[in-house]
TrEMBL record:
<dbReference type="InterPro" id="IPR051783">
    <property type="entry name" value="NAD(P)-dependent_oxidoreduct"/>
</dbReference>
<protein>
    <recommendedName>
        <fullName>NAD(P)-binding domain-containing protein</fullName>
    </recommendedName>
</protein>
<dbReference type="InterPro" id="IPR016040">
    <property type="entry name" value="NAD(P)-bd_dom"/>
</dbReference>
<dbReference type="InterPro" id="IPR036291">
    <property type="entry name" value="NAD(P)-bd_dom_sf"/>
</dbReference>
<dbReference type="GO" id="GO:0004029">
    <property type="term" value="F:aldehyde dehydrogenase (NAD+) activity"/>
</dbReference>
<dbReference type="GO" id="GO:0005737">
    <property type="term" value="C:cytoplasm"/>
</dbReference>
<feature type="domain" description="NAD(P)-binding">
    <location>
        <begin position="9"/>
        <end position="128"/>
    </location>
</feature>
<dbReference type="Pfam" id="PF13460">
    <property type="entry name" value="NAD_binding_10"/>
</dbReference>
Length: 246
């Protein structure tokens, strides 16, 4: 195993928690940003900066192949700070495209680069109405014309692509994030998830768990994360302070 990771979305809220965990464990991390102004942030984190847009397929493929990763991690989103309600309508359209077309480009690049495993961020709050707590095999709310059906279809596309690729595909269905750089200091809504615990799930999935879908959220009766706890050893109470102590 090469101990090299390509982290797409390294400057996001999860990426900025995840990169230090990986580096502390001896991984060499190449991380993406769309903005040249954020390169120094990545360098300061110990990450090899890669300035690339996921929609530029040729440049993305060259970047991933050049990084030579054993594992590719997909933490890309395109949402406004604090989920600003005045900007969310257009952001959900962009995010759905990213999950569909952007994922297609990243999966293709990972395969061409010879990556062994692909870990991808999904969400746990677009299940079709049914009996709670929702489990991974329950259907998503992909029918309808509203923006959340569009979101669910983007999620379904991402998940299908990751699981169908000739790699070990891991999909993490995250709950609603809170904590540093998320715009929310405390848990809000159903199926909450601290950003540091979300990042730790991705860290664990780099080396643990069979391919498949995993709910990753705190226990509040909305979804069950029993599968992630059993297969990944994931704990919703994990925080970065544990990494610092070790």
């Amino acid at each position: 195993m090469s101990k090299r990771i390509f982290l797409a979305g390294a400057t996001g809220a999860i990426g900025r928690c995840l990169a230090p965990m990986l580096i502390a464990d001896g991984w060499q991390v190449a991380g993406t940003t769309r903005s040249a102004s954020k390169q120094q942030m990545l360098v300061d984190m110990g990450v090899e900066p890669v300035v690339v847009d996921v929609f530029d397929r040729a440049k993305l493929e060259a970047a991933v192949i050049g990084a030579g990763p054993d594992v590719v991690i997909h933490q890309l989103t395109d949402l406004p700070a604090g989920l600003d309600p005045d900007r969310m309508g257009e952001a959900l359209v962009r995010n759905a495209r990213l999950r569909d077309e952007g994922t297609r480009n990243l999966v293709a690049a990972a395969v061409k680069a010879g990556a062994r495993r692909l870990v991808a961020q999904s969400i746990a709050f677009v299940y079709a109405a049914g009996t709670m707590p929702y489990r991974e095999e329950d259907p998503l709310a992909v029918t309808g014309d509203d923006e959340w059906a569009l979101t669910a279809r983007g999620v379904a596309s991402l998940e299908t692509q990751v699981l169908a690729a000739p790699v070990e595909g891991i999909v993490l269905r995250y709950g609603g994030l809170y904590g540093p750089r998320t715009g929310f200091d405390i848990a809000t809504g159903h199926a909450p998830l601290h950003v540091e615990a979300a990042a730790h799930a991705a860290y664990l999935a780099v080396t643990r768990g069979p391919p498949g879908i995993y709910n990753v959220a705190e226990t509040d009766g909305t979804v069950t994360s029993e599968k992630a706890a059993a297969a990944l050893g994931w704990d919703p109470d994990w925080r970065m302070a544990r990494l610092i102590r070790t």
